[in-house]
Design brief:
By secondary structure, this protein is of the alpha+beta class. The protein has a domain of 89 residues: Winged helix-like DNA-binding domain superfamily/Winged helix DNA-binding domain (Arc Repressor Mutant, subunit A), CATH 1.10.10. Helix content is 19%, strand content 26%. The chain has three helices and ten strands. The strands form four sheets. It has a three-stranded antiparallel beta sheet, with helices on one face. Helix 1 packs across helix 3. It starts with 20 loop residues before the first strand and ends with a strand.
């Protein structure tokens, strides 16, 4: 058991590394969660607990930058699929895409972890921990998501045969 002062630190963190999150008890008995360099991707409220999925903020702004904003080095063009987890919006090449909650959670999770292959069960556990459905539910939501992305972007969600799915950013 680690000392309370190290709560929120990864096990291999150096002593001078700040925690990515802090939990404090307020005088009225409520708890306060403070996030440092993390954004909530999804929140699931259960009768006795709350599941919060956190991720680092997107490197790209969710909407095109203005003309007077400082230019970024053009190492790679920005990904055409932009996720704003705070506003829970998706924009594809500037066009707003309306998604149901489960499909938004799935797309946001994949886009925030590009090139990483996830099994169906990993996606179910991360996104819908209380769902009692078959892992094939993920296949249905992937198919719907690909249809919504359209012919030009549906291939960005790749099937990893024998494993599951991954997001491939635009080349």
């Amino acid at each position: 058991m680690r000392p309370e002062s190290e709560f929120g630190l990864p096990a291999d963190a150096a002593p001078d590394d700040g925690p990515p999150l802090a939990v404090d008890r307020l005088p009225d008995g409520k708890w306060q969660l403070t996030l440092h360099d993390l954004e909530p991707v999804s929140v699931h409220r259960l009768p006795d607990e709350v599941h919060i999925i956190l991720a680092p903020p997107c490197e790209q702004p969710p909407y095109p930058t203005t003309a007077n904003a400082p230019a970024r080095p053009s190492a790679a063009p920005p990904d055409p699929i932009q996720i704003d987890t705070a506003a829970r919006t998706v924009s594809i090449e500037g066009r707003q895409l309306s998604l149901p909650r489960l499909e938004f959670d799935l797309l946001a999770h994949l886009v925030l972890h590009p090139q990483r292959a996830f099994t169906r069960q990993q996606l179910m556990d991360a996104l819908w921990p209380t769902c009692q459905s078959s892992a094939r539910t993920v296949d249905v939501h992937i198919a719907r998501l690909r249809r919504r992305l359209g012919p030009g972007r549906r291939d960005s969600i790749s099937t990893v045969f024998g494993i599951g799915y991954k997001y491939l950013p635009a080349p």
